[in-house]
Design brief:
The protein is an all-beta fold. It has 6 domains: 102 residues; 174 residues, Macroglobulin (MG2) domain (Immunoglobulin-like, Sandwich); 164 residues, no CATH class; 160 residues, no CATH class; 97 residues, Immunoglobulin-like (Sandwich), CATH 2.60.40; 54 residues, no CATH class. The protein is built from 3 helices and 70 strands. The strands form 18 sheets. Strands 19-21-27-26-22-29-30-20 form an 8-stranded mixed beta sheet. An 8-stranded mixed beta sheet has the order 31-33-36-35-34-39-42-32, with no helix packed on it. It has an 8-stranded mixed beta sheet with strand order 45-57-56-51-52-50-48-49, with no helix packed on it. A hairpin with a 6-residue loop joins strand 53 and strand 54. The longest helix is centred in the first third of the chain and has 7 residues. It is elongated. The model has no long low-confidence stretch (mean pLDDT 92).
């Protein structure tokens, strides 16, 4: 199982034949085993017992048991549920969690609350660039959450009247996250296995049951389809839906009105039903809270007629799953006016339903509906030629926005301008106000003639804006859009006038949210003319749930798997969405976030000075690495690690060419060296080496690979030995060639799986030939015209270019291409044991038949054989 739905239960399976100690019983073991989420920090609750006794198992022992006597296949004795909800019975308590603690204690997974927030410690500017655990209580002596710390639930943190009882807020898994599993043989520290799983991610949809409602007194329903929110096939679940009317058509900070848009609601948090501000942004842990905002009921460029006289109106609603296992959620409004909190709505008012996946904030959708009629502006994301566009690549595609609104063409003599709000609802992401120019002096079309740059939130080179950590470069109100891969971004246009001073148009693009954020509206043209468009950011995954586009390379640059016989290794990562500038080769820094790969990155507790300098281990587990060989002092993001020794090395990745999206480490990491004091990983024969990568522009995209090291006199491992054979042009093995044939040599070498060419690897009669890839680990020469002579023998020898101990060969006989028969013979005659029937001449018969009769004419023996020159009968 490599793809799982959040909420699934998994069993852990390990195949380790050398742990099949007694072939007559089902063996048991309690090894060092872990499953972790590199993005959120979720970590398995696995109680390994170093003194495990199969005959005296303790109550809290976690262990693996063989599936049968003599199988070598081991399965965990209990299942582990990968995520759940806090409470399936209460809408407000539907937040996703890695596990539901009972009295603060979890038994499947812990932690899961690591995220980039502004702790205002490492920098003086309010950047969301500090990777920290959100809402953490008392820490252990090392400054981290203790493995046995108690956990609190999101609803308990959100309710101010309830004091949290534990040390930290229980976290969650996120859709599309990669889960990494590690296993170490309890009897062989060099034997480490890596496993990967992907949490599935589905794109949601949202829709009203009608586009236009004849009036606001009728009923309405909203449908959300989001299968990855169906965590439990036996429960009816809920998702939050937000509804705003004519968003963006009034001013904020006027008479206590502090929110006028969905983007503003996410940032501000809104209020509860008794007018208390939440005071914090909307995130996964509080998205299910019921929220209200103030609509203006006095003149604020527009007025709303709300049921609540001060204008406090509910904006959060819960859509209920239509069945226990559908992934389809429906919100029913029995009467639009009453249920949305209004006494009156007007012709052409716009009802906007927003859906932000409560466990995946890059999955955002909206839908609009209208009262009585639709005669509104049109807003579109486009390319430079104004063709509609809904998918953009970071770095490659500038963003253009077009608005069609005849009302905004007020002066037919002069070109005018309008503003569009562009918002990325993904957590810490961007919000910009863009200026659009009229395409001519008398046109209803407005366009951003200068494309807006689309940048990543984290610069892969690790160079961010001044005052930030690492490559963090998100700044709101800078007329650039910073986003993550896979994000959904929306544009909103309101048919209004804005003031022209620093509180309006003059204050835009100044990286200052104290001016014109949002810009002040001076008056309206059409209060309820609001239009939208949504676009998405392209994404590729290094690990997609079925394959890993990441490899070890030997010193010659050949991809290797299984075992490597090389003195050093490179790392290759194929990640096309990191090709963010198609006019230059790019580089991914090992410390692109400033060295914050907590909690599972390797740590620099010891340095390497011709050997380890110190004995301190990793904070949580020594398998994760504790000794840097290059002298770094941070938690690295891209690295190579020897889990047995704990030695690790950071690696920067350089694109192999312009616009390839293929990245290779800039150095070859020494596995062993004949030179004194060369930094290396402390490798022993049989060690497992692992490499880790996390995409700077999509933190759910992580991958880890492993390889075994074969060094010294052990020779080539059996599973990696080569095979050589003579074949025809199609690659089929042949028994012989004729003197008119072309010669082809095929080599199968698993140690070079993924390589494209093995140069000068095959030798025939002292001449070397290249072999090129025809399959994953299969290579073949081109057709060779060797001027064959009938009767001679031909031998081809292959030598592995990176392992000279791995050789293989094949020998074949050359026969005549023309059959010449001078006479037939049978001999010896008489015979004691066998007799041979053949012919004198040249060549090989394509078909030869021998029939033997007795004196009465009965058939004693009959045979027909192909491609032979003689047939032997044993009598």
């Amino acid at each position: 199982m490599t793809n799982i739905q959040e909420g699934d239960e998994i069993w852990i399976v390990v195949i380790d034949n050398d742990q099949n100690i007694d072939c007559d019983i089902r063996d048991k073991m309690s090894p060092d085993l872990k499953i972790m989420d590199p993005k959120t920090g979720a970590y398995i609750v696995w109680n390994a017992n170093a003194d495990f006794d199969p005959e005296d198992i303790l109550d809290d022992d976690d262990y693996l048991e063989e599936t049968g006597a003599d199988t070598g296949v081991f399965v965990s004795v209990r299942a582990f549920q990968v995520g759940t909800r806090e409470n399936f019975d209460v809408e407000r308590e539907h937040a996703h969690v890695v596990d539901r603690p009972v009295a603060g204690v979890v038994d499947d997974f812990r932690w899961g609350g690591y995220m980039y927030i502004d702790e205002n410690t490492a920098d003086a500017v309010l950047f969301a660039d500090d990777l920290s655990y959100f809402r953490v209580g008392p820490l252990d002596s090392a400054g981290y959450i203790a493995l046995n710390a108690l956990a609190d639930l999101p609803s308990e943190w959100a309710a101010e009247a309830i004091d949290p009882v534990g040390a930290y807020l229980i976290g969650r898994f996120e859709n599309m996250d990669t889960l990494v599993g590690l296993y170490q043989d309890p009897n062989d520290a060099t034997d480490v296995a890596v496993g990967l799983m992907k949490i599935i991610d589905t794109e949601a949809t949202i829709s009203w049951d009608q586009e236009i409602y004849k009036d606001a007194n009728g009923s309405a329903s909203i449908t959300v389809v989001d299968p990855d929110e169906n965590l439990n096939c036996n429960e009816v679940e809920w998702v939050p839906v937000f509804i705003l009317v004519n968003p963006g058509s009034w001013n904020v900070n006027d008479g206590g009105v502090d929110v006028n848009s969905f983007c503003g609601l996410l940032q501000h948090g809104g209020r509860n039903n008794v007018n208390t501000e939440f005071g914090s942004p909307i995130r996964w842990y509080n998205i299910y809270e019921e929220r209200y905002i103030f609509y203006p009921v006095a003149d604020n460029v527009t007025i709303f007629d709300t049921v609540d006289s001060p204008g406090l109106v509910k904006v959060t609603f819960y859509a209920q799953e239509t069945g226990v296992n559908t992934g389809v959620f429906q919100l029913n409004l029995n009467q639009i006016l009453r249920d949305l909190g209004f006494n009156d709505l007007y012709v052409r008012d716009v009802l906007v339903a927003y859906y932000l996946d409560p466990n995946d904030s890059d999955d955002f959708k909206l839908a609009t509906a209208y009262i009585e009629e639709r005669q509104h502006s049109i807003t579109s994301f486009t390319d430079a030629n104004r063709a509609d566009k809904d998918l953009y690549w970071i770095g490659r595609d500038p963003v253009y926005v077009q608005v069609i609104d005849a009302n905004a063409n007020v002066d037919p003599c002069c070109p005018e301008q309008v503003l569009v709000h562009v918002c990325d609802p993904h957590g810490e992401d961007d919000s910009e106000w863009l200026m659009l120019d009229e395409t001519s002096s008398n046109s209803p079309v407005f366009f951003t003639f200068a494309g807006t740059q689309l940048w990543p939130v984290w610069d892969a080179l690790g160079v961010g804006v001044a005052g930030s950590i690492g490559g963090f470069q998100l700044q709101v109100d800078n007329w650039k859009i910073e986003a993550f891969n896979e994000d959904d971004i929306y544009a909103r246009y309101n048919d209004v006038y804005y003031v022209t001073d620093d509180d309006g148009i003059a204050g835009l693009g100044d990286i200052d949210t104290d001016t014109a954020y949002p810009p002040e509206i001076s008056r309206i043209r059409v209060a309820n003319d609001v239009s939208f468009d949504v676009m998405s950011i392209a994404d590729t995954q290094v690990y997609n749930g079925s394959s890993v586009n990441m490899w070890f390379l030997d010193r010659q640059g050949n991809r290797v798997s299984g075992y490597v016989n090389s003195d050093c290794v490179f790392i290759e990562v194929l990640d096309p969405d990191q090709d963010e500038d198609q006019y230059r080769r790019e580089r991914i820094d090992a410390y692109w976030d400033g060295g914050q790969n907590r909690p599972f990155g390797p740590v620099a507790n010891n340095t390497w000075n011709c050997g380890p300098d110190g004995t301190a281990g990793h904070v949580f587990n020594d398998l994760l690495g504790h000794t840097t060989i290059f002298g770094e002092n941070h938690w690295v993001k891209v690295y190579v690690l020897n889990p047995r020794s704990g030695y690790w090395a950071s690696v920067d990745l350089l694109e192999t060419g312009v616009a390839t999206g293929d990245f290779v480490s800039v150095i070859c990491i020494d596995l062993t060296s004949v030179y004194e004091c060369v930094p290396q990983l402390g490798v022993l024969p049989g060690d497992t080496i692992v490499a880790f990568y996390q995409d700077p522009s999509n933190h759910s995209d992580s991958a880890m690979i492993s390889i075994k090291v074969g060094i010294g006199g052990g020779g080539t491992p059996p599973s990696q030995q080569s095979t050589t054979m003579f074949v025809d042009a199609a690659g089929n093995e042949v028994a012989n060639y004729t003197d008119a044939d072309m010669v082809y040599v095929k080599v199968i070498d698993p140690s070079h799986a993924g390589a494209t060419l093995l140069a000068s690897a095959v030798e025939i009669d002292g001449v070397e030939y290249d072999v090129t890839a025809t399959g994953a680990d299969t290579f073949q020469t081109a057709g060779l015209d060797l001027q064959l002579i009938a009767g001679e023998q031909l031998t081809a020898t292959y030598v592995d270019p990176t392992d000279l101990t791995d050789t293989s060969a094949d020998t074949i006989t050359v026969i005549a291409s023309v059959l010449v028969v001078d006479s037939f013979y049978a001999g010896p005659n008489p015979f004691d044991a066998e007799v041979t029937f053949g012919f004198n001449g040249a060549g090989v018969a394509s078909q030869m038949t021998v029939v033997i009769y007795d004196l009465a004419g009965g058939v004693v023996y009959e045979t027909t054989q192909t491609d032979v020159s003689e047939i032997t009968w044993d009598g």
